[in-house]
């Protein structure tokens, strides 16, 4: 049986471990927050095989303002010759008549992008699922380099998920300011995704909305 002195030492040792672990955890999350913040608003576009628009809400086939902003930015990149193909992604919610991907496709087609230059991918509710489905479809066409279009706060996680699913990616965000809530949510997602894997974390985020 351990002496009282030994028991005290063991308790102090465990407390040190907990304190050090807590400090390291706070530092890790803090560094991740600044990485998310610095990546927000990234526009490191290079010429690529395709421009990929990440899905967002649509209302009976009409893109939400967030999705419309992404689509407008993708159209601009296409007209600048950044890539010959625009990929619209995103599934739908139960009861929806249209998918995010199809709403985006119709929006861009109406804006004047030829049907031959558009690819619709409707698999995937989460960012990971959308990019994984995109990677599969592009590989069938011997394509792999993409410019990802989404909101600024999303930039760091996008590039890391793209790497996880095997896409050679750069990011061109829509611009504008990100809210603290968005940055904190992304910090949580990136902090956990690096440890647990983005597929698991993105599915969890989709579940909690």
Overall description:
The chain is 55% helix and 12% strand. It is α/β, with parallel strands linked by helices and 209 residues long. It has a domain at 50-178: Rossmann fold (3-Layer(aba) Sandwich), CATH 3.40.50.620. The chain is elongated and about 80 Å long.
What is the topological layout?
Elements: H1 4-39, E1 50-53, E2 58-59, E3 62-63, H2 65-79, E4 85-89, H3 100-110, E5 118-121, H4 127-140, E6 145-149, H5 155-165, E7 168-171, H6 180-196, H7 198-208
Parallel strand pairs: 1-4, 1-6, 4-5, 6-7
Antiparallel strand pairs: 2-3
Helix pairs in contact: 1-6, 2-3, 4-5, 6-7
* Strand order across the largest sheet: 5-4-1-6-7
How much strand content do the residues show? 5-15%
Distance N to C terminus: 52 Å
User: What is the H/E string?
Assistant: HEEEHEHEHEHEHH
Largest sheet: 5 strands, parallel
Q: Which oligomeric state applies?
A: single chain
| Rg of Cα set | 21 Å
Low-confidence stretches: none
What is the CATH first-level class name of the domain at 50-178? Alpha Beta
Mean pLDDT: 89
Shape summary: elongated
> Which structural class fits the helix and strand makeup?
alpha/beta
Percent helix, as a range, is 55-70%
């Amino acid at each position: 049986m351990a002496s009282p002195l030994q028991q005290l030492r063991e308790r102090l040792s465990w407390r040190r471990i907990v304190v050090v672990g807590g400090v390291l955890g706070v530092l890790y999350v803090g560094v991740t927050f600044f990485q998310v913040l610095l990546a927000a608003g990234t526009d490191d576009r290079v010429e690529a095989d395709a421009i990929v628009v990440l899905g967002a809400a649509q209302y009976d086939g009409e893109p939400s303002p967030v999705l419309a902003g992404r689509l407008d930015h993708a159209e601009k990149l296409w007209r600048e010759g950044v890539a010959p193909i625009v990929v619209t992604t995103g599934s739908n919610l139960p009861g929806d008549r249209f998918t995010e991907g199809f709403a985006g496709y119709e929006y861009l087609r109406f804006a004047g992008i030829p049907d031959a230059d558009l690819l619709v991918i409707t698999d995937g509710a989460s960012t990971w699922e959308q990019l994984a489905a995109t990677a599969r479809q592009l590989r069938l066409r011997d394509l792999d380099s993409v410019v990802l279009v989404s909101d600024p706060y999303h930039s760091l996680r996008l590039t890391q998920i793209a790497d996880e699913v095997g896409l050679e990616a750069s990011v061109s965000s829509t611009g504008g300011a990100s809210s603290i809530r968005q940055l904190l949510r992304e910090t949580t997602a990136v902090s956990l995704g690096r440890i647990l894997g983005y597929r698991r974390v993105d599915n969890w985020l989709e579940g909690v909305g």
